[in-house]
From TrEMBL:
Coiled coil: none annotated. Residues 195-233 form the FdhE central domain. Pfam families: FdhE_central. InterPro entries: FdhE-like_sf (IPR024064), FdhE_central (IPR056797), Formate_DH_accessory (IPR006452). PANTHER family: PROTEIN FDHE. It comes from the Bacteria. This is Formate dehydrogenase accessory protein FdhE.
Length: 303
């Protein structure tokens, strides 16, 4: 997570014509910046990570075990607990400033006990099965507080948990992404996996950018851990369909950079941003927020 890239992107889209985009940036911008600061400040003792072998990298990109499932990362409890508290405080501060939370709800948020999510056992789980950790965290929360508190988990707790994990794993995921790209061959003899080779989550978006040697290249981006990996240009990122007749791009006439890659086979619409320059210095998280407005408009029923 690059603070400078996030700041530049937030400034670039601050005056976006869509009020939904402006509202999302106002909410998520401070959280992304806080997560970037947390990630940058982490010490080697806070996140202990072993570099994967070439064999482990190759197996991961071919659909084998994800890199996190190999037990390569250990998250220190104290550092993660601190990240949870900082992100929770920032989210509450932002919600208050934007007028999105009432007094009673704010008091409920302030009383959240984050300890059950930052135990040694929970973090061993998180560092090996990120999607599973989030699912089991919801089950734990409901077990402790009942179904009446489900909304609090969905609207606050899962956001904080997700960003704390992202901040914790971002450096490892970014390094793995670089190693994977270094081993990527110009002619690929296999279908690239549809889920993240690092954590196993589904990608949230794609980025298409020019490269020095091979023209435009497409990458999928994981919002859960921060990894990215090359992907076929003519292929659905959701179901893997490669039929040209089933795939098309849609976009706002005034914005050709942010598009949806729509698959007629499965109905998925993958947010995709087209860059004129190389992707270095771009904030995929912010670009995703901008493209999400297009996705919402595309999914809205026609009266």
């Amino acid at each position: 997570m690059n603070r400078n890239a996030i700041e530049r992107a937030l400034e670039k889209y601050a005056g976006h014509k869509d009020p939904t985009v402006r509202a999302d940036l106002a909410l998520w911008g401070p959280l992304l910046l806080e997560a970037a600061d947390i990630s940058q400040a982490l010490r080697p003792s806070d996140i202990r990570a072993n570099e994967p072998t070439n064999k482990e990298l190759d197996q991961a990109v071919r659909g084998g075990p994800t890199l996190l499932s190999l037990g390569l990362v250990k998250i220190e409890e104290a550092a993660y607990a601190d990240a949870l508290k900082r992100l929770a405080a920032k989210l509450l501060e932002t919600l208050k400033r934007e007028g999105r939370i009432g007094k009673d709800a704010a008091a409920e948020v302030e009383s959240i006990d984050w300890a059950p999510f930052a135990t040694r056992a929970a973090l061993l789980d998180a560092a090996s099965d990120l999607p599973g950790y989030l699912e089991r965290s919801e089950a734990l929360w409901l077990e402790l507080h009942g179904e009446k508190s489900e909304g609090l988990f969905e609207n606050f707790i899962v956001i904080v948990l997700g960003l704390a994990l992202r901040a914790s794993l971002d450096r490892f995921a970014s390094q793995c992404s670089r190693l994977i790209e270094m081993r990527d061959k110009p002619v690929v003899d296999y279908e690239r996996r549809l889920t993240c080779p690092v954590c196993g989550s589904h990608p949230i978006m794609a980025v298409v950018a020019p490269t020095p040697q091979s023209g435009n290249a497409k990458k999928l981006f994981c919002g859960a851990c921060g990894a990215s990996w090359k992907f076929e240009r003519i292929r659905c990122a959701a179901c893997g369909d490669e039929a040209v007749s089933d795939l098309r791009y849609v976009h706002d006439e005034a914005d050709e950079a942010h598009r949806l890659h729509v698959c007629a086979d499965c109905g998925a619409a993958t947010p995709t941003v087209f860059l004129k320059g190389e992707e270095i210095g771009v904030s995929p998280d912010v670009e995703y927020l901008v493209t999400e407005a297009l996705a919402d408009a595309f999914a809205a029923p026609v009266n």
